[in-house]
Amino acid sequence: MPKTKEEDEFRVETWISLPSKGSAGNTGLWRTFRPVINHDKCTRCEICILYCPEPCITIDTEDPSHKKGKIIIDYDFCKGCGICANECPQKCIAMVKETEFVKEDE
Amino acid sequence: MTVSNNRPVSLGHEKPMTLIISGNHAAAYAAKMARVEVVAAYPITPSTGCIEKVSEFVDSGKMGAKYIKVESEHSAAGALIGASATGARTFSSTSSHGLLYMAELVWWAALARLPTVMSIVNRELAPAWSIWAQTQDSMGLRDSGCIQYYCKNVQEVFDTVLMAYKVGENEQVYMPSLVCQDAFILSHTSAPVDMPSQAEVDDFLPPYTPKHFILDPKHPVTHSNLSYPSHFREKRQNIMESTHRAKQIIKDVCADYKKRFGRFHGDLIETYGIDKKTKHIIVSHSSIAEEIEVTVDILKEKGYDVGLLRLRVLRPFPDEEIREACKGAETIHFIERAPSYGYKGVIAIDTMAALYEGDNHPKPFHHIEGLSGMDVTAEYVADLIEKDLASLKR
Amino acid sequence: MVTTKEILSSPEPILPGHAACAGCSSSLGLRYALKALGENVIMTIPACCTSVWQGPYPKSAITVPVLNIAFAAAASSASGVSAALEAKGKTDTTVLAWAGDGGSVDIGLATISGAAERNDNMIYVTYSNESYSNTGVQKSGATPPGARTTTTPFGRIGSPKNIALIMWTHHLPYVATACTSYPRDFIGKLRKAQQMKGFKFIYLLAPCAVGWRFPAEKTIEVGKLAVETGAHILWEAVDGDIELSPLSKKYRDPAKRKPLEEYLKYQGRYKGISKELVEAYQKYIDYQWSIITSLADIKK
């Protein structure tokens, strides 16, 4: 039986989701405290990366500031749970209230 | 065990043959010839015979499917979903409380668009315990999206299982199917069943190759995660559209099957003794309908202008076909096993709604008969119809 | 044991910006699990926290194929996936059923038991936050004695089921317990399980900041305290032979365990709970140790 144009265009669609960053949006907006790294004190042990549940901490090994690179936190997604600060062996991550940064912006 | 083309083996059907077998065995033979890849089932009377036959096929090496001997019907349906989502052709058989126990996942399979096929032996629900025929088990899942076939004899069970795969796996459909037969009356009654050769079945039913979705690590997708309300209309309408399209696809597949194998049991409906002017139409389903063919003969002999409309497919519902068949009808008589408590028979409800949308509104007569497998004879139904018609004259 | 460096250098299987609560250890647990198992994995996830935190349609934070499924069907659907893979000759793919404690210990118990008895080929991880956290922290069959939940407002009375031991009685190739605070131990166990055919079970303690009412930054610390106080015993059983994991070995001696109070003090769910219930918890822990150490003495 010849198919009509409409029939040919019809496709079964089911619930298919594709792996994506920000599946729940920019979850950085949830944050009340921001982890701020003291890069001078940081030894690049990467314990913060190991324990980040997001995970939104990475190391930029190309960064020239240190022979091992630089730890980067993606603030678009970091929810500010504070695990990184709590687990940091050097205690070089401070949890700073987001309102401090609002003042800064103003 | 797989053959070189990576399909499960199916031995013993090199040539067409006729076997005298029960409805349960007919479904098992059809599953084997469909080269089902994964079976998951839990025994329940009276569908047990089907999965016992499948076990015999699998363990003797005649059927190359993986058979998961699950601990419950819920897990049977869960396993079918997992296997079907991984691209396998799947099969199960259950009945009554077994079907209701898996109901959650029957809906899941339908809404996930997974074209599994299950042989359902329609059995009464408890309390009180009963093992005999009644169709409320599957009719209770009427709204799930599953395609529902109600067979009138053992040959139809065999043929319909094969056709159900072809329809459900159509890329415009992708829906599960319930192929229903009456407890004992068909499930345990042996009758001659004509079977094509395996090569002919292979030609009719190619391997299942899902185009809508598959779990594949090379193309990772997440299926059925949380969704917001704004996406539901589009996805549910897609199911509505598919199930509507399934009507034509069922007709095409039945016509193709007839051409290939010479057998036709009707498509969405089957009529007996009906022309466009038939005044009195009996609407029925399942094995009762085959008995009512005799009723029609008896009544015609007595001079009544009567015919039978057998509802072969409950979902998608053949509304246009019913309106067409009932064009000249003055009365319509429902003989059905399944009541919808608080209203009328399940089939009557849908049929009357279909007629309401047409121009002809025959007077309905309602009969719930054959509960728990009570024998419904041709003479008994003839008597009912005569009384219906006599009541009009008073 | 796998090195921290190796864990860090493997690709990130969980994408940031998902819907988990801040500090969620189940997202951390799945991150470790998929780092351990690689990319050739198919997952089934029943109703649980992960069914929400993976993010809403049409996006997902998980980079391997996932079949979301109804509550009691994580194991059964994984059995189906596994059978289909076998039917298609794709036996190099790992099937991972990932369910919460409710979906495993309670509503899904018959289903896991069935899949285990059949020895269906999969790794089943119960990540346990010891309550129905996803629905707002109600008591589950894994809630420890004395813990306050929204359905045990004065503290849970009675004892939880030890699902790992229940699974052990199924004669499985591999059973283990783990904790999200010890990724090297957990990953090592998963890799061991991945090498085996049949049903492998891991009970993963996943401390829940929201449900247990501790500050999110303490998630790792609380998990470590669960092990150091002996409240959570790390062990594994290869082909039935139970052995304490290195991290728990020294706590066989009760004198070496930190006082239970150390573990409970961070947890709001134990705040104001009667002394009797806390003692009941301690008794439960001691009894668990007796069972595990006695069973560890039995060899095949």
The mean pLDDT of chain C is 97
User: What is the CA-atom radius of gyration of chain C, in angstroms?
Assistant: 18 Å
Would you identify the regions of chain A where 5 or more consecutive residues have pLDDT less than 50?
Answer: none
Morphology call of chain A: elongated
Structural class of chain C: alpha/beta
Order the strands across the largest sheet of chain A as they lie in space: 2-5
* Assembly type: heterotrimer
How widely separated are the two ends of chain A? 69 Å
Please tally the β strands of chain A and state the result.
5
| CATH-defined fold name of chain A | Alpha-Beta Plaits
Number of domains of chain C: 1
Uncertain residue segments of chain C: none
Strand content of chain C: 15-25%
CATH architecture descriptor text of chain C: 3-Layer(aba) Sandwich
Instruction: Kindly give the count of domains of chain A.
Output: 1
Q: Give the second-level CATH assignment, the architecture of chain A.
A: 2-Layer Sandwich
Q: Helix fraction of chain A? A: 10-25%
Strand order of the largest sheet of chain C: 3-1-4-5-7-6-8-9
What are the defining features of this structure?
heterotrimer; B: 394 residues; alpha/beta; Rossmann fold; 2 domains; 7-stranded mixed β-sheet; 5-stranded mixed β-sheet; 13 helices; 15 strands; 40% helix; C: 300 residues; 8-stranded mixed β-sheet; 39% helix; globular
Quick rundown:
The complex is a heterotrimer of chains A (about 110), B (about 400) and C (about 300). With about 110 residues, chain A is α+β, with helices and mostly antiparallel strands. Chain A is built from 4 helices and 5 strands.
